[in-house]
Specification:
Elements lengths: L1 E3 L3 E5 L16 H21 L9 E3 L9 H5 L5 E5 L6 E5 L9 H5 L5 E3 L4 H12 L12
Antiparallel strand pairs: 1-2, 3-6, 4-5
């Protein structure tokens, strides 16, 4: 599925995967060629960068708490989590594909053992942020700053 039908018609939710032609919807030849040119240009811009920067806030699995139940796999809208056997113990645990993960936190909410957290957004860090805002000498009022 495209990221946005009007603003990013060849881009998908996964970085580096582009749509072109009839895979998106039925199109005639000129539209397919134009969309293929757009997808090629987008791919070329990634190649020119040399490396892709990933989002720093992605899911992280605590292997000691993970029971391998697979609820996180079912909850993830991006297909970024798979339950696989651990190399040493052959115990099944969840593993996150950092390239596919968008840091939405759905998997963390679905985990019954609290084995998944977002990097830079664990419970301790969020509580610290809330305490900092609530104890601020200047009141934080949502609205338009003038």
């Amino acid at each position: 599925m495209e990221r946005h039908p009007k603003l990013a018609p060849v881009e998908t939710a996964s970085e580096g995967i582009y749509l072109a032609g009839a895979c998106q919807s039925p199109k005639d030849i000129p539209d397919s060629v134009a969309q293929a040119a757009g997808a090629a240009a987008a791919a070329l811009s990634l190649i020119d960068q040399g490396e892709i920067a990933l989002d720093p806030s992605i899911a992280e699995v605590n292997l000691t708490l993970c029971a391998g139940c697979g609820q996180c796999t079912q909850a993830c809208p991006y297909g970024a989590i798979q339950v696989q056997a651990e190399q040493k113990s052959r115990r099944k645990v969840a593993q996150v594909n950092a390239f596919l993960c968008k840091g939405c936190g759905t998997c963390a909410g679905a985990c019954p053992n609290k084995a998944i957290s977002l990097i830079h957004f664990d419970d301790r860090q969020l509580v610290s942020e809330m305490v900092g805002v609530l104890t601020s000498p200047t009141p934080v009022v949502p609205g338009i700053v003038t």
